[in-house]
Write a structure and sequence with these properties.
D-Amino Acid Oxidase, Chain A, domain 2; FAD/NAD(P)-binding domain; 3 domains; alpha+beta; 12 helices; globular; about 25% strand; Arc Repressor Mutant, subunit A
Length: about 475
């Protein structure tokens, strides 16, 4: 049985950021993820918004870590080689009542420490966003808002942690956690076991379940399903800021926003669900379209290329739970980390490791820690001269596999072999964008599967789309 100082359960942005922060110290650490890849839960189906911090209640953990994380995000993304854009956000008001609401949001944001907030009138709003509805009366402008790729950031944080010695166990579905004299023994459904001194529970929607397995039944987590529609890059410049409606008790509502990869994103809905259901519905997608058209009547929905849904975990305290369990010593719970969890992740990681883990274990600086991760090549964005230089070193970059996104074989091979390694077609897609374009993998998927089979040294029929049971083919018919 392998022994560790700290085991992090949950391979999303919170778990990944904490794992990376732990490797800054001389600790043996591992990440336990129940799925076949990381970033498979909230961090996969996420709007990717870097929130400014004006809507969280003053004095809450959400407010504290949102504002701190926002200040850190540009440097954090740069270190990890991930795209980030400070595009600013606008909370748009459509009535006098909503104008009063966004004025209150401005006051709250200023108390939270959000800089340079401004109320715009209708004319000023349309100068910034010409495609906004004529019914809009004004907006709260937050210039510190931004956008980032949520799964890209998660993958990079975990990959950097692995480069610095952390170990990753995928398809490790926790079935039992036993308290021992030294800490814990954690067992998986398939019989694998690890031992550790501390557990950091970052299991998202399953964080209540993990807490209960460990002996702490105090965490009650629910889920809200959010459905999205993604538009082709052709529509990516339709708006330049992230556009919000005034928030409700269920969340920040439908948004219209560019993504860092040049698409246009509409959504999400907010529907209470009894289980982790990520299916989309006709009613949900119709709601997204209705709201998006209210914000921007001319939104080019004809350029929609896919729809998807994610489940946002929340807890009955209506704030982040970030604390050592009151009943199970050594169990650190990070639960109910809904929006703005992505923004808050770097700040949460520093707090969890410095304040909570630091009270239990001696934190000695790891002088060999290397925090910079080489950025993805993004071959399609290079000049002709730069492309020729890359191809001269590795001819695989001269073979375009995904025509929609112009992704080369060299980029796919790199994704298969760097940390955390891509082991499925969808894992390759999340790392390289091969299959994320207009045809959604209709043409490139077989070629990606061939490259996976070759690089992993497995038969083609063993290549999976995502995880167990998702093999693309059963065998030859001729």
């Amino acid at each position: 049985m392998r022994e560790y100082d700290v085991a992090v359960i949950g391979g999303g942005i919170i778990g990944g950021s904490i794992l990376r922060e732990l490797t800054k110290y001389k600790l043996s650490v591992c990440l336990l993820e129940k799925e076949a890849d990381v970033a498979m839960g909230q961090s996969r189906a996420n709007s990717g918004i870097v929130h400014a911090g004006f809507d969280a209640a003053e004095g809450s953990l959400k407010a504290k870590f949102n504002v701190a994380g926002n200040r850190m995000m540009k440097g954090y993304a740069e270190e990890l080689g991930v795209k980030y854009k400070n595009n600013g956000s606008l909370v748009v008001a459509f009535s006098e009542e909503e104008m009063q609401a966004i004025t209150a949001l401005k006051a709250r944001g200023e108390k939270n420490g959000v800089p340079r907030l401004e109320i715009l009138n209708a004319e000023e709003l349309r100068e910034k966003e010409p495609n906004i509805s004529q019914e809009a009366l004004g907006a709260l402008y937050a210039p510190t808002g931004g956008i980032v790729c949520p799964y890209g950031l998660t993958i990079a944080a975990i990959g950097n942690a692995m480069d610095n010695g952390a170990e990753l166990f995928t398809e490790f579905e926790v079935s039992q956690i036993e308290k021992t004299k030294k800490g814990f023994t954690v067992s998986a459904v398939d019989g694998r076991e690890i031992s550790c001194k501390l557990i950091v529970n970052c299991a998202g929607y399953a964080s209540g379940k993990i807490g209960a397995i460990a002996g702490d039944s105090s965490i009650r987590v629910g889920g809200r399903r959010g459905e999205y529609i993604l538009l082709d890059r052709e529509s990516g410049n339709f708006v330049s800021h992230t556009l919000f409606f005034a928030p409700t008790k269920l969340g920040k509502g439908i948004l219209v926003s560019p993504t860092v990869d040049g698409n246009l994103l509409l959504g999400p809905t907010a529907e209470e669900i009894p289980e982790n259901d990520t299916s989309t519905s006709a009613a949900g997608l119709a709601s997204v379209l209705e709201k998006a058209k209210k914000m921007c009547p001319a939104v080019p929905v004809y350029n929609a290329i896919t729809s998807f849904a994610g489940v946002r975990a929340y807890n009955d305290r209506h704030d982040f739970i970030i604390e050592e369990s009151a009943t199970v010593a050594g169990l650190i719970n990070c639960a109910g980390i809904e929006s703005p969890g992505l923004t808050a992740a770097p700040a949460i990681a520093e707090y969890v490791v410095g304040e909570l883990v630091g009270k239990k274990l001696s934190l000695k600086k790891n002088e060999n820690f290397h925090g910079r991760r080489e950025a993805e090549l993004h071959f399609q964005s290079l000049t002709v001269e730069e492309k020729n230089a890359v191809i001269a070193k590795d001819p695989a970059y001269g073979k375009i596999v995904c025509r929609c996104e112009q992704i080369s074989e060299g980029e796919i091979v790199r994704a298969i072999h760097e940390n955390p390694p891509a082991r499925s077609v969808d894992a390759v897609k999340r790392r390289t964008r091969a299959g994320m374009g207009r045809c959604q993998g209709g043409f490139c998927q077989p070629h990606v599967a061939e490259i996976l089979a070759r690089e992993l040294g497995i038969p083609f029929e063993e290549v999976k789309k995502s995880g167990k049971g998702s093999e693309l083919v059963k065998g030859e018919i001729k």
